[in-house]
Design a protein that fits this description.
elongated, 5-stranded antiparallel beta sheet, alpha+beta, 434 Repressor (Amino-terminal Domain), single chain, Beta-Lactamase
């Protein structure tokens, strides 16, 4: 983990843009770097190469919004990646010792337990900190104590459970980066990154690219060992007043075979 969060992010993102993507000539001879050179990013952003070097080296970690907008354009960042760039530039380092615990309020537990539809409460690290019976019936890895990303990437049965396992895995790694926040020196995050770097090729690839994912809704098609094929819509609901906890709710289209299968399984 490095304190130079902004510089590392810029370095990772420029490595993904080829000169051809940026409309630049390839020039003569082999290139010594993946993607764009620092001076090429600076030229595209309309800033001096010396100033851009300061940003990547971490000697200036709070550029103006005008510079950030220019970097978004130069690095061809999408909405999620642009959001994360601004987050890195504007967020001060956290005081790790002062972080609150990940305990779930009783009222939150009562709420999700009252729902018939599967619901999982995640910490900002995608640790499962609470879930209801419907969620645990859907997957044993939705039980409290598991890390959802770790289970997704390291448990072989999850490849059979999710029909688009690889796509979900890539998006989930990118989601962790946003949910955990810009403090890449966080102790719990470091534990997760160390474990998954050693055990998952997809994690190593996506994490090194610094991909981010802001999507809060979507659809998962899963194959349940008892209920069969299910089409589950999901939505992430942020819990205000917590340190990044969210409720992930899974629901079916009214009148669909999935809704019927979930209802039969509850009986």
């Amino acid at each position: 983990m490095h304190a130079n969060r902004l510089g590392n992010y810029l370095t990772a993102r420029r490595a993904l843009i080829s000169p051809a993507d940026a409309g630049l000539p390839l020039g003569d001879g082999p290139r010594r770097v993946d993607g764009l050179r620092r001076e090429e990013v600076a030229e595209l952003a309309g800033i001096s190469s010396q100033y851009y070097l300061r940003l990547e080296q971490g000697r200036d970690q709070h550029p103006s919004d005008q510079v950030l907008v220019a970097l978004v354009r130069a690095l061809q960042l999408n909405r999620s990646s642009a959001y994360y760039l601004f987050l890195l530039a504007h967020s001060p380092p956290s005081l790790l010792e002062s972080r609150p615990s990940e305990e779930v309020e009783d009222r939150t537990r009562w709420l999700v337990d009252s729902w018939d539809t599967p619901a999982v409460v995640h910490s900002r690290y995608l640790d499962v900190v609470a879930s209801n019976a419907a969620a645990r019936a859907l997957s044993p890895f939705f039980a409290e104590g598991f890390n959802s990303l770790g289970a997704l990437l390291l448990q072989p049965s999850m490849r059979d459970f999710y029909q688009d396992w690889e796509g979900i895995a890539e998006r989930s790694v990118a989601l962790l980066r946003v949910m955990a926040g810009p403090d890449t020196g966080d102790r719990r995050l470091a534990e997760i990154v160390d474990e998954l770097t050693g055990g998952s090729e997809i994690f190593r690839r996506v994490w090194s690219r610094s991909d981010v994912e802001l999507t809060s809704t979507g659809t998962h098609r899963v194959t349940h060992p008892v209920m069969g094929e299910l089409e589950l819509h999901h939505k992430k609901l942020e819990i205000t007043g917590t340190h990044g906890q969210s409720i992930f709710v899974y629901h079916a289209t009214p009148g669909s075979p999935t809704e019927q299968a979930l209802a039969l399984h509850r009986r």
